[in-house]
Write a structure and sequence with these properties.
Elements lengths: L11 H7 L9 H12 L15 H4 L3 H24 L9 H27 L7 H30 L3 H27 L4 H31 L4 H17 L2 H18 L1 H4 L3 E3 L2 E2 L5 H23 L6
Antiparallel strand pairs: 1-2
Helix pairs in contact: 1-8, 4-5, 4-6, 4-10, 5-8, 6-7, 7-8, 7-9, 7-12, 8-12, 10-12
The structure holds fe (iii) ion (FE) (2 copies).
Length: about 325
């Protein structure tokens, strides 16, 4: 049975910690059944078409700004991931793995599309889309995404380093961003259910990317133990990048905007719990970011140990 269907898939963080999936299973045929004909069936925009954006999300104010800032940034992140990951397709060591990366390229292109299109649903005019992306997220894109992209392209395109690319994506890039994505799904759920579904769908894809990517790295390292030192060194360089890039400031700024909007819409949110026993309206920006950071640490430790790179910690 497919463990990653829309109704039964675990949350992103739980799934990334508990699901085991290899490229032998998660090849092109699996993807066709579980993604286009599975989670995405009837959701061409990433969410149930019956879900519309509430009027208060389309009105100027901190809540709309928070979602525009977030989705503009994430749309560009996904587009950069799509372009960079495509370099892993020709250097994948076998057919199943090649098929998996071909599907991941399409997944990431889809994520870029659904985040971008949701900006239109929030009332950004189509003719003005790229100016809006630049206005809302340009500074963050240049400060955080451009250096990460440069780092990734050096490994995947210039060095054609397959293991390096896989480790970079599963540990440094997607592994580090996944907790923020789960936080997003949880906090937007009562305010913009269409956005929460977009995140849910992307999160289900992400469980596959993280677990299959880790299985690929583990298998590759088992066959090439001489590459371990290089992989450890890459993880160390990648983790160092996260300490110097202004990611924490970026996430906190987003949460502060969200908080102002949350206070205005407290009646809509009501007793909704962001996690069991904790009402969203009672949380603070610091608490939400600290929780995501904690998930990040937990996931990174588990994934490094699974791959066989626990010395990196
Ligand atoms: Fe993605
Ligand atoms: Fe992904």
């Amino acid at each position: 049975m497919n463990q990653l269907s829309w109704d039964t898939a675990p949350s992103l963080v739980d799934g990334a910690l508990s699901v085991e999936l290899t490229p032998r299973e998660a090849n092109l045929r699996y993807w066709l059944e579980t993604v286009p004909q599975g989670t995405l069936a009837g959701r061409p925009d990433g969410h149930d078409p019956a879900l519309t954006v509430p009027d208060f999300m389309r009105e100027p104010g901190p809540l709309r700004d928070a979602l525009l800032t977030e989705y503009a940034f994430r749309s560009v992140a996904e587009e950069k991931a799509t372009r960079a990951l495509s370099y892993l397709v020709p250097i994948a060591p076998d057919t199943d793995t090649m098929e998996f990366y071909a599907t991941q390229v399409l997944d990431e292109a889809r994520h870029a599309m659904v985040f971008r299109n949701h900006l239109l649903a929030l009332g950004v005019p189509a003719t003005n889309l790229w100016q809006a992306v630049e206005a809302f997220a340009g500074a963050d894109i240049h400060a955080v995404l451009d250096p990460l992209e440069e780092f990734g392209l050096k490994i995947m395109r210039d060095d054609a380093d397959f293991l390096g690319g896989v480790v970079l994506m599963t540990i440094i890039i997607e592994g580090a961003l996944a907790p923020a994505a789960e936080l997003s799904e949880r906090k937007w759920r009562p305010l913009d259910p269409a956005a929460a579904e977009i995140d849910r769908g992307a999160g289900i894809d992400e469980i596959r990317h993280l677990t299959v990517g880790a299985a690929i790295a583990k298998e590759y390292l088992a066959g090439h133990p001489e590459d371990k030192e290089r992989a450890l060194e890459l993880v160390a360089r990648g983790m160092h990048m996260w300490t110097v890039l202004p990611v924490h400031e970026l996430v906190l700024r987003r949460e502060v905007l969200f908080q102002r909007g949350l206070e205005q819409q407290a009646a809509v949110v009501g007793d909704y719990e962001i996690w069991p026993g904790r009402r969203l309206v009672d949380t603070t920006p610091e608490e939400r970011t600290a929780t995501a950071d904690e998930w990040s640490r937990e996931m990174k430790a588990a994934r490094l140990a699974y791959i066989g790179l626990e010395e990196a910690l």
